[in-house]
């Protein structure tokens, strides 16, 4: 603030010229008195405001306005705004009374404003102070009258407000009791069914709230999946950017090293050129100095000779004896006269020209090599040959290969050229079609290849300067094709199974793997319970648990990896299972579609002209089943017709094909023939049979083969009757055998649990 003295000084005219223009000059004492009075008036409105608030509170308490106000707040419960918004417009008197209360509050606030304005304005004079005091008293009286009228009107309308607020609270409680049970698809909010029928959502499309929640969850799930995909894409982009960052750093390092190498080479070349030129300049200097020195020595010699002759001449001229003078000039004086010697010396030519010039030859350093080096900074050399990696185990599939290589140098490479072709053992293997691919990375996955096939690969590196030499060739092999299990050659019993398969590839494989899955009623049926690896052949004997169900698959293995699983087969270890060997069947014998039923329609000429396999029966209309290669007990049944003549039993693999079953020592069988008097049953081995009479013709014959106890037993399975038992030591595993001697049908049943009544 400015000091008070400034208001009465002459400097105030310069600071506030417009305010002082209408007031005139005043003395310094008057100004000080006005300043003191103004400071008192600044404090006075605050005291006035405090008294007004106190008087207003007393008036409100006198007329009961404060108690009515507390009741209003309790009854309304914070819903005053809602009551005012829903009040009918016809009630103007109560609104006016409420407005009077608001005006009263405004008037109370207006009472305080003069004090604030007094602080903001300049210091007023005494006349204005008196006017303000009288105006404040009038405002106080008016305010008291307004509060009194407001209290009366407020008390009159409080009862009506209370009743209306209570009714509205009851309505809101009833609305809250009815929760939303449907979803408005148009407004996207949950609503009540009543609102759909009679409310504002009558024409909107609605759905059940649970279904709307489920659909909303599905939509959120879809969006979350999209968000996850976007996150994965961004992560891939970020990883790619990181790789680019690393590549930029590597390229920068390579270029920096390249610049440094070229700079060092250029400096080295310049230093070498400088040394060469400096050495040549020194050699030229030496030659010049030597020539000048030699010429200087010769000049010295001539000067000495001249000086000597000059001295002798002077002595000769000083000689007074004429005879002596002439004597010196005669030929007898030192062989030559002096004058002659002087003439001869003067005849010698003296080289007075400089033997060499002081100027040096202009020498310019040849910087062409340096220019080549400088120009080769941006010229990238052709890369070196890459090194292709050998094939990693299990890195291939049946139709694809992953090839990797490396570049063990700092050469700049733009891309790689990968070439491959299949390897063939034929003479014209070079004529195989070559395939070429261009890739950016140091790896490549080649698809659409043949299974279990060898391919030859080589790779070259490319940049702007050219192509590198090709790498050494590497041989890769694809994984094999899935094997094919021979269903009709599978044999099993209660504790083992013999599985056979064949390879679908031309090239051999390294080994096979058999995978077993024990099937149960649970959901995890595909769990691999056992794997048998390193099987060299196309069959394997597997030990299993009785009364179980297994799913069996086969894989082929080679260096490239494992093939896909073969088509699975199901094996039940409830009994012995075998199939009929079609290669041994007589031409007149037919095997029906189920694979276990044989029939014969005619027997007029068993030795017919139909095509016969090398292993087929030719005389007896018979067929062998699969070999039973499992030790222990094996049981199967044959369903026969009463009027059919047949033979059934077991036989060795080498049983004669041109004879009858049971007529040799390599087969054991039960024969049924019909005579005019009865049904006759024979149990034949080596053409011999015991005398056994069977009163009840069996319709279902049970056969029990016991390798351990060396027994072959026959039963009438319908009545659990034992018919006969062969006691014979089987030196080899045997085949089930069946034959028809009259037109008819035989049905074979396998996979049957051995009945308890077969125990002898």
TrEMBL record:
Keyword line: Coiled coil
Biased composition annotated in UniProt, kind: Low complexity: 97-118
Spans of biased composition, class Acidic residues? 168-180
Stretches assigned to the Fibronectin type-III domain: 386-482, 483-576
Give the highest taxon in the source lineage.
Eukaryota
Stretch list, region Disordered: 20-50, 76-181
Listed Basic and acidic residues bias regions: 20-35, 76-94
Where, if anywhere, are coiled coils annotated?
264-295
All copies of the B30.2/SPRY domain together span: 558-757
PANTHER family given in the database record: E3 UBIQUITIN-PROTEIN LIGASE TRIM36-RELATED, FIBRONECTIN TYPE III AND SPRY DOMAIN-CONTAINING PROTEIN 2
The protein's name is FSD2 protein
Organism of origin is Sitta europaea (Eurasian nuthatch)
* Organism phylogeny: Eukaryota, Metazoa, Chordata, Craniata, Vertebrata
